[in-house]
Amino acid sequence: MSKFKKKTKAETSIPTSALPDIIFMLLFFFMVTTVLRDQEILVEQKIPQATQLQKLQKKSLISYLFIGKPKNTSLYGSEPRVQANDVLVTAPDIVQWVNQERDKLPEADRGMITISMKVDKDVKMGPISDVQTELRNADARRVLYASTGKIYED
Amino acid sequence: MARSKGRGSQEVNAGSMADIAFLLLIFFLVTTTMASDKGILNILPPKLDPNVPPPDIQKNERNIYTILINANDDLLVEGEYRRSPDGLDKEIKEFVLNFGAPTEKGVALYNTLPATVQAQALRRPESSDDPTEAVVSIKTNRGTSYELFLEVFDLAKKAYFEIYGERVGLTAEEYRKLTGDDDATQALLDRGKENLPMAISIAEPDKIGGN
């Protein structure tokens, strides 16, 4: 018994004085990377995967369109809908929305407006082609099919 | 004098600092969403003028690599049925780099390519004449799933990026990551795709079987 007791007398406590610093470091990392959602997503968003992803240089040129099945099916039905800003729109409204988004950009960048289409996996090509037709009408022809990375097995 | 006054308790109790920081940390951990602005870039064709009839483009059938996807997500690639798009990237690459009967522009392009890319020219008479003529055409149906379309489009892009990369001695991955921020990388980017446009045509979906 006494033998064991003697052993435990050794210094066992881990110094925790640097703990706040580590926590602060993590805290700052998350504070910097965090983006507070300014809009509520009303449609389902399961983003598909792809391998050939490109990143855009200028984030300010991107406007987002969300396409998917509405989360609240009792209110909006179960057919895929398009969300621009924080409302669900129909295809003919897209031209007006694009013009509004374009007006927010500085004049020199207006031709380079890019629409990031965040499309749910389960959507069919029909609604997407309708949206693309409207984008062509609005002359916003740079489209980014948002997708997440996939590990490619060769 | 003043010193003796301040002797009482000069240090602020910092023991609970970690707890406060933890609280904030957990708040940001929960609310954070990693910004992801990655995706596959596509340039849509310009709007058609209703007064001008669509241009009648004469192209040899052998210069078009047709991929049809129907509402059941079956593929018809160059008239051949298949269930999955696996391996399409390699076939598209072979098709683009075929150099079956190069035109004047094609010969000039061929001479600028490094030997490793030149060696990939199969020179099949039934495949594309040269990369400046070759077009990859993807046609979907309104009922085709977006996921499969994106996968096929992704593979077509992959084929082109691999060609661009090999031209400047990089892998497709490295080429794609070039940002063009400075002159050196911009020059690499330009050299990769010089005279070799990424010709991926996305036809308007047809109406049968869709919703």
Automatic annotation (TrEMBL), chain A:
Give the stretches traversing the membrane.
Answer: 12-36
Keywords noted in UniProt? Cell membrane, Membrane, Protein transport, Transmembrane, Transmembrane helix, Transport
What is the annotated localization of this protein?
A: Cell membrane
Tell me which InterPro entries the record gives.
Answer: ExbD
What family classification does the UniProt entry report for this protein?
Belongs to the ExbD/TolR family.
What does the record give as the organism's lineage? Bacteria, Pseudomonadati, Bacteroidota, Cytophagia, Cytophagales
Protein name per the record: Biopolymer transporter ExbD
- Say which species the protein is native to: Algoriphagus aestuariicola
Checking Pfam families in the record gives: ExbD (PF02472)
Q: Give membrane topology per the record.
A: Single-pass membrane protein; Single-pass type II membrane protein
TrEMBL record, chain B:
Q: Which InterPro entries match?
A: ExbD
What keywords is this UniProt entry annotated with? Cell membrane, Membrane, Protein transport, Transmembrane, Transmembrane helix, Transport
Q: Does the keyword Ribonucleoprotein apply?
A: no
Membrane topology type: Single-pass membrane protein; Single-pass type II membrane protein
Q: Report if keyword tRNA processing is assigned.
A: no
Q: Highest taxon of the source?
A: Bacteria
Which compartment or compartments is the protein found in? Cell membrane
| Pfam families from the UniProt entry | ExbD
Family assignment from sequence similarity: Belongs to the ExbD/TolR family.
Q: What name goes with this protein?
A: Biopolymer transporter ExbD
